[in-house]
């Protein structure tokens, strides 16, 4: 029988290294699949050889990141409380939390999509669109954010909730399935030999894949309703006043970090857009390439969250510390591997995405600078997640805001003036270094 007691073995008695691997491997796998289908949009659009089409995907990226901010607000907050509730042997609180997280996340997703529809010109021009790229960018963003935004938010939100009670493999299957569908649809909708819809086709592919993935999670929870604490029952919304504040409190730092990422990415694109379209397209390629260690670190962090929250709630702090350090070591090791490979093969990697020599040269130069942030970021994410798992809202919020929003935009002005264009790429390494120093000080306390 698939009982809650059997699933909590991974949190309580399984050797911590094995427990960490059992949690993070499916989470990493799902993040890698998500990365592949994010890269697929840029890759297949890049095959068109049109920098304007590639720039459109780049410019729309901040709006897509905002979807992740909303999903993390309810998904990370809800997942942490669910795991903590199981650690305290309170499955009813976990059930109420999951329903409140789902339905409030759904409502916010609908509101955000409608707001984007109304404010699209202002948002996209602020993100770096020009008269030459606006129409293409809007066609892509319309499908990803307006029509597919709600599904994208629910997809990630539900994956976090399902993972919170130890079902990491089921969460991985749902996210991976969506990624594979996205890749297949990209082939048929983007390329000229088939539908030839370009960036708009990539947007449709992303929208449809997120919808099917969200449906998978809802059907899965319905089938497992007798053996899971995850519930989508709207009748549990009567506990909203009791549960929502705690969900928002814990999820807020993650949401702020992603929301401020929107501002930081948009600001960086805006700075770069005053130079050339090829530079904007090159930045877009780098933003895709540096997602490999980023998504790996997020996968490690997402897998660790339930394990850390459960053991913190149950009082087993030695197990929590051991799991955290082991997870950090895995994340950091992979980041250093990426650092070496990217520095050596920057030009070749950039050339995979577009057959335009100027765009590829910009991308290679940008990548060699920005890659230095990867080992720093690989530790920052698990640090922030541990603070959230322990309910240390102030610490996680400070680290999140430092990574995005406080010093990066002033640095853009300073470094772009000192080293035009290329100085913008130094911002993230500096910001991550500062954030990591502060996080380590909190951790040592």
Textual characterization of the structure:
With 445 residues, the protein is mostly helical. It has helices at 4-7, 9-12, 16-46, 51-87, 91-126, 134-147, 149-164, 168-190, 199-223, 240-273, 277-289, 291-314, 317-344, 346-351, 357-370, 374-389, 393-403, 408-418, 427-444. The radius of gyration is 21 Å and the shape is globular. The mean pLDDT is 86. The protein is built from 19 helices and no strands.
Q: Note the gap between the termini.
A: 42 Å
Approximately what portion of the residues adopt beta-strand conformation? under 5%
Total beta strand runs? 0
Average of pLDDT: 86
- State the low-pLDDT regions, or none: none
Provide the helix percentage: over 70%
Report the total helices.
Answer: 19
C-alpha-based Rg, rounded? 21 Å
Counting helices, strands and paired strands, the structural category is mainly alpha
**What overall form do the CA principal axes indicate?**
globular
Largest sheet: none
